[in-house]
Amino acid sequence: MTTFESPATDQRFPLRRSCPFAPPPEYVALRAAGPLARMTLPSGRSAWVVTRFDEVQQVLADPRISADVTHPGYPQLTPEPDPEGEKVLPGEFFKMDQPEHGRYRRMLIPEFSVKRIKALRPGIQAMIDRLLDDMLANGAPADLAAAFALPVPSLGICQLLGIPYADHEFFQPRIRSRKMVTYEDVQVAIAEVLAYTDKAVSRAEEQPGDNLIGRMVTGRRATGELSHDELVGMVYQLLIAAHETTANMIQLGTLTLVRHPDQLAELRADPARWPNAVDELLRYHAIADGPTFARTAVADIDIGAETIRAGDAVFALCASANHDERAFDRPGDFDIHRNARKHLGFGYGAHQCLGQNLARAWLEIALETLFRRVPTLRPAIEIDDLPFKYDAAIFGLDEFPVTW
Ligand code: HEM
């Protein structure tokens, strides 16, 4: 396997955001220069970054682009090789390629269908109302992250999987790796959440309920299609994928709507606008960017005038694609009137977010209910003082003090 060794530019990857409402500013010049650029990873290795909307879609949909973390060319973002980064649990399909990836993903697709999520909406509304009852009863000010934004995915995923909500006190802090200080802390937390997931699957194997884990046990474990460990890996992956992403989007969405009172007033007057507004929030913030979309080319691929060689590292910049002036008019403006549906906030291609229908329902109901029930909601501190996670793989906020 050849790896890409030609000299990189002196531009370092990943680039950092400097404004909470825009991707890294360097993306503008990179997109203007071409659809692909070469950058240098913390290890010193060179990688391709893909910057424009069409080419990002092309790369993420190309079967010659691998998401397999065990591939020898798979790029890591640590200065030294991290053996943990090459590990794949059985069933952890977001780190796999076809055909394994598709085999696991297909088993879960019915759980996230539009119809299934529609049926969950009344339960989601009731859960969100209860969270707001508590937040209002405790009085202002509050940390929107702790009181609302994190409990929405925590409670929601517990309902979906069929695990007791009381357990969120155990797994929520362990999933929030930002709060951990050392590499060892993170590894211990991963092991503990895995052991927890293992127990939850064992319980369901003894007594399957009418929930996702229960249906996997009766429908897939019983037929021998899935092993115990594979189901543990799948469930673990869902727990991790749902939390920070959704919590960050609820907080950033709240902040952005407070900053655009005219558009918020339109949404209050016409709630049918919420679904598109949520897609516009996902486009505008594009919280999952290059580091999430680390890939390896497994064959030569021509893109424009360039050839990505087999073994090369590739990062698809979905935040850049969502702000590509070729795909969206005035991309830097937040505008609930544009048709934002084609955004890449959930990625694209084989690994496009499996939970997107659920995430949309959570975000729509959370934001609509929050602003309906707490119409005077606003940040309790200056926006510049909010703790934005500029160096995290998924952009967002650590805490969000609010008042009303
Ligand atoms: C606003 C919230 C969310 C955002 C922005 C988001 C974003 C993403 C993105 C960008 C990917 C693609 C990663 C890649 O291509 O490497 C992805 C994959 C995935 N997401 Fe989400 N996600 C969200 C919520 C959820 C929820 C609620 C669930 C499940 C309960 C979920 C489950 C998954 C899974 C299982 C994958 C892997 C899919 C695969 O590899 O086939 N996500 N998500």
Describe this entry's structure for a reader.
The structure is a single chain. The protein has a five-stranded mixed beta sheet with strand order 1-2-8-5-3. Residues 1-8 have low confidence and may be disordered. It has helices at 26-33, 53-60, 100-108, 114-138, 144-149, 151-161, 168-175, 183-206, 212-221, 228-259, 261-269, 274-285, 318-322, 356-373; strands spanning 36-40, 46-50, 65-66, 142-143, 294-297, 301-303, 306-308, 313-316, 378-379, 401-403. It has a single domain (26-403), classed as Cytochrome p450 (Orthogonal Bundle). A hairpin with a 2-residue loop joins strand 6 and strand 7. Helix 8 (183-206) crosses helix 10 and helix 10 packs across helix 12. By secondary structure, it is an alpha+beta fold. The protein is 46% helix and 8% strand. Protoporphyrin IX containing FE (HEM) is lined by residues 67, 93-94, 105, 157, 237-238, 241-242, 245-246, 249, 287-288, 292-293, 345-347, 351, 353-355, 358-359.
